[in-house]
């Protein structure tokens, strides 16, 4: 569990506590966690299968939605099973390498989702402002390149943090009051100076998630400007309706994320279990609700779901 080096003892195994202060309620807390995870797996897998198997859904909007559903599955699978193992079996022991791997996958996937939401906003902008050129601009080749760029951006920005963590000596403590591993949550147990970790983590956050949110805001300002200059009220209503599900997902994704960041930075008097629960909402709520929102708001997906479960009904 520990190694010796020239700076002293460094922990190589850590223990995740789950939700501190609510240990007696872990069994009850695990119920919504399990239900949310099951819905996320089923809903997103169903969305991916429908989009990939129906050629009429091989349009840019649905292909980006397919990427989002895949990222949702990875994000929830990377974190929720670990939490359930803690709640059910008290299996919180995790090696340093596994902890860093979990952090790398969860954080890079979270940033990938942010990038996907940005390109979905760009997709809506093209569809509304340049409808006649929509399919010629967003070709399948370009969509593939965009997808690769999104994931490369996430992995390349997070990858240096792996080395920033590996250089540290964790001699303070090996008990982590959380359900999964985080960058600063792990780094703060090091005896080394972690200012580089803090500043690089802030740079990554500002250059990816915050920048994406600002660009999405600009995209929707341009979209609204174009919509309110349409001559037909029916056209305005139809254009706004196509953005409804995307706006819901944006609020669902960025709302809890920014609220969590603010409480971590300024909510020093907020109980620790509230911080942990908010962090879990960020990885639980979007993957669970995204397929439900798109299933309800998108006619084509709704019809395909109805055809799968009620094949005899017209």
TrEMBL record:
Q: Which Pfam families match?
A: 7tm_4
Q: Which organism is it from?
A: Muntiacus muntjak
What is the name attached to this protein's record?
Olfactory receptor
Primary location class: membrane
Q: Identify its membrane topology class.
A: Multi-pass membrane protein
Q: Which residues cross the membrane?
A: 27-52, 64-91, 103-122, 142-165, 198-227, 239-262, 274-294
From the Swiss-Prot or TrEMBL record, state where the protein is found.
Cell membrane; Membrane
The keyword Kinase appears for this protein: no
Q: Does the keyword Transcription apply?
A: no
- Family of the protein in this entry: Belongs to the G-protein coupled receptor 1 family.
Recorded hits in Gene3D superfamilies, A to Z, give: Rhodopsin 7-helix transmembrane proteins
Q: What does this protein do?
A: Odorant receptor. Putative odorant or sperm cell receptor.
| Family annotation (InterPro entries) | GPCR_Rhodpsn, GPCR_Rhodpsn_7TM, Olfact_rcpt, OR51/52/56-like
For this UniProt record, give its keywords in alphabetical order, as a comma-separated list.
Cell membrane, G-protein coupled receptor, Membrane, Olfaction, Receptor, Sensory transduction, Transducer, Transmembrane, Transmembrane helix
Q: A single GO CC term, please? A: plasma membrane
Q: Which segments constitute the G-protein coupled receptors family 1 profile domain? A: 43-294
């Amino acid at each position: 569990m520990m190694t010796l080096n020239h700076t002293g003892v460094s922990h190589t195994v850590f223990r995740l506590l789950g939700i501190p202060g609510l240990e007696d309620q872990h069994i009850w807390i695990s119920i919504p966690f399990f239900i949310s995870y099951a819905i996320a797996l089923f809903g997103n897998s169903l969305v991916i299968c429908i989009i990939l198997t129906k050629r009429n859904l091989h349009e840019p909007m649905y292909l980006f939605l397919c990427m989002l559903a895949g990222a949702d599955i990875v994000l929830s699978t990377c974190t929720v099973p670990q939490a359930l193992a803690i709640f059910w079996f008290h299996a919180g022991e995790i090696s340093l390498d596994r902890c860093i791997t979990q952090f790398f996958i969860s954080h890079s996937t979270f940033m990938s989702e942010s990038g996907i939401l940005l390109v979905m906003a760009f997709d809506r902008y093209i569809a509304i402002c340049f409808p006649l050129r929509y399919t010629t601009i967003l070709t399948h080749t370009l969509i593939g390149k965009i997808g690769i760029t999104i994931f490369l951006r996430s992995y390349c920005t997070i990858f240096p943090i792996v080395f920033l963590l590996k250089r540290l000596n964790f001699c303070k403590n090996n008990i982590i009051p959380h359900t999964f591993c985080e960058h600063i949550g792990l780094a703060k147990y090091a005896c080394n100076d972690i200012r580089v970790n803090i500043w690089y983590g802030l740079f990554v956050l500002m250059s990816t998630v915050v920048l994406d949110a600002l660009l999405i805001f600009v995209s929707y300002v341009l979209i609204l400007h174009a919509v309110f200059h349409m001559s037909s009220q029916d056209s305005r209503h139809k254009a706004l309706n196509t953005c409804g599900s995307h706006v819901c997902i944006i609020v669902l994704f960025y709302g809890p994320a920014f609220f969590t960041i603010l409480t971590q930075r300024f909510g020093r008097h907020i109980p620790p279990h509230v911080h942990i629960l908010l962090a879990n909402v960020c990885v639980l709520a979007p993957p669970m609700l995204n397929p439900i929102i798109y299933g309800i708001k998108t006619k084509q997906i709704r019809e395909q779901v109805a055809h799968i479960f009620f094949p005899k009904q017209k």
